[in-house]
Amino acid sequence: MLALSAKGILPKADVAIFADTGWEPAAVYAHLDRLERDIATPAGIPVLRVSSGNIRADALDPDHRFASMPLYILNKDGGQGMTRRQCTGEYKIKPIKRQIRELLGYPHPQRIPKDVFVEQWVGISTDEFHRAKDSGVRYMRNVHPLIDMGWTRSDCVRYLTSLGLADTPKSSCLGCPFHGNAQWRHIRDTSPDEWRDVVDFDAAIRNGNARANASGNQLLGQAFLHRSRVPLAEAPIDHVTAAERAALQDELADAEELEHGTVDGCSPWACRGEADALAQDDFGLAS
C-alpha cells in the first residue's frame, strides 16, 4: 500500500506507521529502512515508528508489567492449554492509537470530537476479506484498499517484484508462538544468531513470565513457544503435516515463498490464531 500510494496509484497517504515490538527479525528492520529511504521519503510520506517497549525484554523483566504472549501450556497432569494473547493489543494497536491521537491533536485522555477521525488503510487482500474489521474506535476508520482494488495476495507479490521488492519479509516477532514449522525452519536455517535468541527465550519462559512468578502467580504447568509443547531446540520443526502443506498451498501461489517459509506474520487488525497462516505487514497508513 505504501508503494501504491507513493507511485500515485492510491491517494497520497499523510503518514505511514510501523508498530515495533522491539523483537522483529533483522530483515524486517532492514526492509523498513529501505522502504523509508527509497519509496516513502521521495514521495513525501513520513514513516513513524511507534512502540510500547521490547516484548522480549518485558517478558523476562520481573519488574515490568507484561501483556502475555499466546504460549502453549503443558500441565502437570498432561493437560494442554494456552495463555491469553494480549501482545497484539499492547505492542501493536496501543502505540498506533497513541500516535494517531497525537496526530489529531487530542492526546489521551482528551475526548476526540465525533467529526474528527483518520482513515486508516489496512493491507488485507481479497484472499483474506473475512479478516477485515473495524478499528474499534470512532477516530480511526479502517478501510481496505487492496480489497477495493480486487487485489489478491499474488497480485501484491507481483507488484512488489516489479519494484525490486520480491524479498519483502513478513513482519512478526521472532518468537511468535503462532509461527508454523516453515517459519521456525527459516529462522534456524538462515539466521543462526536469531535462532539462538528464540531458543534461549523459549527456555527462559518455561515457567511463565517473570513478573507473574515474582508476584507469586506461578504457572501451574510449563510454557513453550512451539505447539508440540517440547523445547524449541528439540521441537519437530522439520515435519510438514498434510494440514500445514494444504494450508500453505491454499494461501500461497508463490513456490519460493512456500520454500522459504515467509507466510507467517502478524498485523494489528488481522492478528492470526493458532490455526492460521495468514499475515499482513504492520504498516498503518492514514489520510
Structure description:
It is a single chain. By secondary structure, the protein is α/β, with parallel strands linked by helices. It has one domain. Helix content is 37%, strand content 10%. The chain has eleven helices and eight strands. A five-stranded mixed sheet has the order 2-1-8-5-6. α7 packs across α8. The protein is globular and about 55 Å long. 38% of the residues are buried.
Give the SSE layout.
Layout: H1 2-6, E1 15-19, H2 26-43, E2 47-50, H3 55-59, E3 72-74, E4 80-82, H4 87-104, E5 118-121, E6 140-143, H5 145-149, H6 153-162, H7 181-190, H8 192-204, H9 210-214, E7 222-224, H10 242-251, H11 255-260, E8 283-286
Parallel strand pairs: 1-2, 5-6
Antiparallel strand pairs: 1-8, 3-4, 3-7, 5-8
Which structural class matches the secondary elements? Answer: alpha/beta
Strand order of the largest sheet: 2-1-8-5-6
| Rg of Cα set | 19 Å
Strand percentage, roughly?
5-15%
Question: Main beta sheet, described?
Answer: 5 strands, mixed
- What is the element string, with H for helices and E for strands? HEHEHEEHEEHHHHHEHHE
Q: What labels would you give this structure?
A:
287 residues; alpha/beta; five-stranded mixed β-sheet; three-stranded antiparallel β-sheet; 11 helices; 8 strands; 37% helix; 10% strand; globular
Short overview:
37% of the residues lie in helices and 10% in strands.
